[in-house]
Target: Diacylglycerol kinase (ATP)
Amino acid sequence: MSASKFIIGRCKAMGYALKGAIILIKTEASIQVQAAIAIIMTIAGFYFNITATEWIAQTLCIGLIMGLEGMNTTAEAIADFIHPDFHEKIGHIKDIAAGAVVITAIASSIVGGIIYIPYILALFN
Ligand SMILES: Nc1ncnc2c1ncn2[C@@H]1O[C@H](COP(=O)(O)OP(=O)(O)OP(=O)(O)O)[C@@H](O)[C@H]1O
Model:
């Protein structure tokens, strides 16, 4: 494959991926809630003037949660496509896909606490 074909192919793939990200943000309520929380946390980051390392941790947490939520949505869509009717196994697949997001959300809440609790306590000192 020539270099120009490779680059055009990668650009097209990036276009499809961006389209997918826009679909997720436009149609998925859980992603919209997470995007709203991400905006609030970004405002909090500027308000408390958090350090570069704290920005990195916060940005990674936001990306991990929203990325994994996208994968959860993908698992749900595949499950509904291959078996639209009620099935115990489909329920199990959807539950564990959602569980993966919860694990990341718990870890991110801990990271958020480690970052912001000292700043919030400093407000009262
Ligand atoms: N076809 C099915 N068969 C068995 N249980 C299901 C089925 N569809 C959904 N469930 C159960 O309902 C739960 C919620 O599923 P649903 O597809 O509504 O996703 P959700 O959690 O509302 O996420 P989202 O808001 O992203 O759609 C699942 O975790 C599962 O326990």
